[in-house]
Write a structure and sequence with these properties.
mainly alpha; about 0% strand; rod-shaped
Length: about 25
């Protein structure tokens, strides 16, 4: 469960950063 949440947040943060860089 913990690894799942960690992977989920890591992917979410990476997506937000990617959008900010593009923006």
């Amino acid at each position: 469960m913990t690894q799942f949440l960690l992977a989920f947040w890591t992917a979410k943060v990476a997506t937000i950063i990617s959008i900010k860089i593009r923006g």
